[in-house]
Specification:
Distance between the termini: 20 Å
Oligomer: single chain
Strand content: 5-15%
Number of strands: 6
Radius of gyration: 16 Å
Number of helices: 7
Shape: globular
Helix content: 40-55%
Order of helices and strands: HEEHEHEHHHEEH
Structural class: alpha/beta
Amino acid sequence: MNSPINIAEYFIEEKAPLAFIGDVHGCYDELVELINNVRAHDGGDKRKFVFVGDLVDRGPYNVEVIKLVKCLCENGAGYWVPGNHDNKFARWLLGNNVKVEKSLGATIDEWQKYYNGNKDTAIFLEDFYIQKSINGPFYIVFNKEVVAVHAGIQNWMIGQMNSQIKSHCLY
């Protein structure tokens, strides 16, 4: 059975131009360069950034990527829908038993070092990351025209949410 969703989270009217960025995978330096290039091309910072999953794993600066995306989202300059790597790392953060492969292991090591040195700020960062990765939104419809999603979505899924749709969006 499909459960109702919070329309405000899944359907957004946005007047600013959007730039879609996917699969950052902890590559902070490249992300900052991309954002700066987009802003330089636009002649300012009016454009908003839409991150379509997989902020973490593989790259060396996963925590910095999460911090940057959190900052952009909280300051009204960005949106984020999670991907499968985000969901898996969040499940690990919650203490769930997940298969830890090399890239996730490196992300965990990086997180533990950050957490141990910054417990006060790490808790807020962790809360933001877990909330979005586990609870979504897993897709966002902008201006009733454009759908931001990590893996994919079918037309009939738009406007509802259940475990099947969540999985489809993530994987």
